[in-house]
Design a protein that fits this description.
Elements lengths: L2 E5 L2 E3 L5 E8 L8 E6 L6 E6 L6 E3 L7 E6 L4 E6 L8 E7 L2 E2 L3 E5 L2
Parallel strand pairs: 2-11
Antiparallel strand pairs: 1-3, 3-8, 4-5, 4-9, 5-6, 7-8, 9-10, 9-11
């Protein structure tokens, strides 16, 4: 079955950087569109970015465009989210997703 395991979250000061990872298994990762979503505290889920090695490429929510970069290593079945210039409003639990499946999430807290 589909398994997604996120890691790399933590506490970071405003302006700092983090790289999240998501190890995938149970499906054809290299040919799949993968998505990052997040859930800020007390708020609904937000789409952050998607990535495909195929024709659709990648795209980002306006709130993270220019600061976040999504990439993947198909040899490792791993999706990444490089986050720079982090802001307090980026505080959320971050999940990678494939279709309706998502992992357990990793907490990102941006605070001084």
């Amino acid at each position: 079955q589909v398994q997604l395991v996120e890691s790399g979250g933590g506490l970071v000061q405003p302006g700092g950087s983090l790289r999240l990872s998501c190890v995938a298994s149970g499906f054809a990762f290299s040919t799949s569109v993968m998505t990052w979503v997040r859930q800020p505290p007390g708020k609904p889920f937000e789409w952050v970015a998607y990535h495909s090695d195929g024709g659709v490429g990648s795209n980002y929510a306006n709130s993270v465009k220019g600061r976040f970069t999504v990439s993947r290593d198909n040899a490792k079945n791993t999706l990444y989210l490089q986050m720079t210039d982090l802001k307090p409003e980026d505080t959320a639990v971050y999940y990678c997703a494939h279709g309706k499946a998502r992992g357990q999430g990793t907490q990102v807290t941006v605070s001084s």
